[in-house]
Amino acid sequence: MRIFGVILIAAATLWPVYWFAGLAGQHDAGASFSQYLGSASLILMGINQFLATRIKGLETFFGSLDRIYVLHKWIAVIAIAALGLHDIIDAEMDGIRGEALSGIAEDIGEVSLYGLLILGFASVITFIPYHLWKWTHRFIGVFFAMGAFHFFFIEKPFQNAEPLGLYVSAFCLLGLASYLYMILLRPMLPVGHAYVVKAIRHVGTVTEITLTPKGRGMRHKAGQFAFLQLAQSGLSEEHPFTLSSAPAEDGSLRFSIKDLGDFTRRLGQNLDEGGDATVTGPFGHFTLPSGRDPQVWIGAGIGVTPFIAFAESLKTRESGPVTLYYCVREESDAFFAEEFRQLAADVPAFELVLLSSANGERLTPDIIAAKAAADLGRTHVYFCGPKAMRSALRTELISKGLRGSRFHFEEFEMRSGIGLRKLANWLLDRGLSELARRREQRTQPGE
User: Fold this and answer.
1) SS3 of 301, please?
2) 416 in any annotated domain
3) Are the C-beta atoms of residues 238 and 227 closer than 8 Å to each other?
4) Which of 19, 84, 300, 327 could form a disulfide with 164 if both were Cys (CB 3.0 to 4.6 A apart)?
5) In terms of domains, do 161 and 37 share one?
C-alpha cells in the first residue's frame, strides 16, 4: 500500500482531536475521549465503505487493489476496536440535553455496535465459507447507517451544524453514499467487459478458461488480475483471479484456476463452453519493470500463474536475464512445466528451474544469491506463493544485498485473518504442554 494514502487516512482520523481537546476542558475528559473514539470509528468506517467501491483512482492513492484489501481489513479492525472502547468508556456528559430522537438513537447505537462486532468477527474467521461471508458482509453497511443515525441524534456537546459535526457527518455521508452505490447503483451500471467462454481445459486440479471479447475487451498488463463473473447457475459469484496470459491481439483472456474451495470445484465440474462472462478490471501493480536488469521469478504451486503471462510477454519485449524458480511438492504438480520449457526454448534470456520438495529440492536464498552473484543488487525479484516462504526469502535476500524495493509481491489472499488461528494454536500448544507437565508431576514417585 502507498504510505501517502495511509497518511491521509491517519490525518482524517486524528484531525477531530483538535476540536475534542477543546471540549475536554469544558466537560469530563473521559467522556470527551469516548465521544472522540465513536467519531473516529465512524470516520474510519466511512472511508472503508468508500474503499470497497473499487472505483477508478483508488489505486493511485492507496496502492494496488490487493494492498487496498489488506488496508480495508486493518481499518475495520481499528474502527471496531475504537467502537468497542467507546461503548466501554462512559460518553455521557452532565448538562447536555438530547434531541427528541436521542433515546431512539441510543438504542440504535447499541444494535449497530453488536451487529458490527459480530460481522467484523465473522470477517476474520477465514474458515467461514466465502459465499456465506460475502452475503453477511453486505449488512455491514446497514449497521454503519445505524451508527450514523446514532451520531446525528445522540446527546453530544456540539451541534451537527458546527465544524466538528459537519466534519464527522461528511464521512458518514461518504460511507452511506458508497454503500448505496454498491447495492443499488453499481448493479445497474455497465461495469466490466462482456466475454464468451471459448474453451475450457483441465490440467490436473487446474481449470483453464479462455475467454473471447464480445466487443473491445479489456486491456491489461501481464501479471494483473481481474474479477470474473460467469452467467451460469451456481457460478454467478464474482471472484478475483490472476490473468495467466499476456495481452493478446484478439483481446482473448485466460484464467488458470486451481480447485481450492467450493466455488472453484463447481467451476471445474460444471462450467460449459459458450456461456457469457463478465470481467472487471484489470487491477494490481504486479507488473514487469522496464530495462534490462536481471530478474528472478519465484512461483510456488498455483502462484506460478502470473509468470505464465510474464514469460509470454518476453516474446515481444526486451529484458535482461530471467530465471523462474517453479516450486512444487511433486513433479506431477508442475502443470505448466512443459509450457515454460517451450517458452524457454523460444526466449534465450528465459531459464526455468523446477524444484520438487518431494525430491529434496528446496529453494533457498543461498541458491538465488549464488546464481545472481554480483548482480543481486540490480536484480528484481518477483514472488507469488505462501506468505511464510515469502517472508523468509525476502529477509534473507535483503541481508545478502538485494534492495528491498526490488522484491515485488502480491497479497495472495483477498480475504485474510488477523492471526486468530495462530493464536488458537499457540494457546492449544501451551495448554497441552501444561497438561503434560502436570500429568508428569502426578506420576512421579514421592520423595
Assistant:
1) helix
2) no
3) yes
4) 19
5) yes
Alpha carbon 360 to its chain centroid, in Å, reads 33
- Smallest CA-to-CA distance from 49 within 187, 227, 183 is with 183
- Looking at the fold, whether 223 and 174 belong to one and the same domain comes out as no
| 3-class secondary-structure state, position 440 | helix
Q: Is the dihedral of CA 298, 303, 309, 315 positive or negative?
A: positive
The domain that holds 342 is classified in CATH as 3.40.50.80
**Whole-number pLDDT of residue 398:** 95
pLDDT at 447: 44
| Model pLDDT for residues 27-86, shown as the tens digit of each residue | 888 889 999 999 999 999 999 999 999 888 898 899 888 889 889 989 999 999 999 999
Residue type at 87 in one-letter notation: D
**What are residue 199's DSSP bridge partners?**
210
Which of 254, 278, 260, 195 is CA-nearest to residue 415? 260
CA distance 123 to 438: 37
Q: What is the pLDDT of residue 432?
A: 58
* Domain that residue 207 falls in: 193-283
**In this structure, which amino acid lies at residue 1?**
M
Q: Which of 298, 341, 299, 290 is nearest to 319 (CA)?
A: 290
pLDDT in tens, 105-149: 999 999 999 999 888 887 777 667 777 777 888 899 999 999 999
CATH code where residue 20 lies: 1.20.120
pLDDT tops 90 at residue 22 = no
Residue ending a domain, among 171, 188, 205, is: 188
Distance in angstroms (rounded) separating the CA atoms of residues 126 and 121 = 10
Alpha carbon distance, N-terminus to C-terminus of the chain: 62
375 and 275 together in one domain: no
**Model pTM score:** 0.79
**Total domain count for the chain?**
3
